[in-house]
Amino acid sequence: MEDTKDTPETESEFSIECFQNYTAPEVFIQGLAGIVAQQDVETMIRAQKQMLQRFEKTNEMLTNCNALSANRLKTVGPEFKKHTQLLVDMKKDLDYIFKKIRAIKTKLSSQYSDAFAEALRSSLAEECKEDEDLNENNTKEEAANPNNNSSVNCNTKRNNSISSDSDTQIDSNIN
C-alpha cells in the first residue's frame, strides 16, 4: 500500500486545513513573518515605540499649552473688551470735541474774519519757525541746502490750513 500522506495532493490539503482557522490577514502576516528577519521586525517595533513616546510627550505638551492659553484668554478677554470699549468711547468723545471746535472756528471766522485769518497766519508762522530751528539743529548739510524741507513744510501747512478753513466753512454751511 502506498502512503497517501506523501503525495502532493495531501500536502496541499494539509496546508489548507492548517490555515482554515485563520483569517486572510493573519495568513498574509504569517507568510510575511517567514520572509522578514525577526531582528528587523524588533528594530521597527522599537523605533515605533520611541516615536509613540515622543508623540505622546508632544501631545501632552500641546495639551498643556492649549490649557494655559485658554486660561490666559479667559483672564485677558474681559480686560481686552474693556480697553476696546474705552477706545471706542474716547473716539466718540474726540469726534464730538473736534466737531464742536470746527463749529466754534466757523463761527469765529464768520464773525471776526480778519482777526481769525491773522491769528491763523501767526500760529502757522510760529510753527514754521520752530520747524526751521529744529532742522538747523539736526545737521549742517540741511541748513546749507537752499531747498530746505522746513519751507516746504510751512507751505504745506499753509495750504492745508487754507483748505481746512474752506472745508470748515463748507461743513458749517451744510449744518
TrEMBL record:
It holds the Pfam family KxDL. Residues 145-175 have a biased composition (Low complexity). InterPro entries: KXD1-like, KxDL_dom. GO terms for cellular component: BORC complex. Residues 32-116 form the KxDL domain. GO terms for biological process: lysosome localization. Residues 129-175 are annotated as: Disordered. Belongs to the KXD1 family. This is KxDL domain-containing protein. The lineage of its organism: Eukaryota, Metazoa, Ecdysozoa, Arthropoda, Hexapoda.
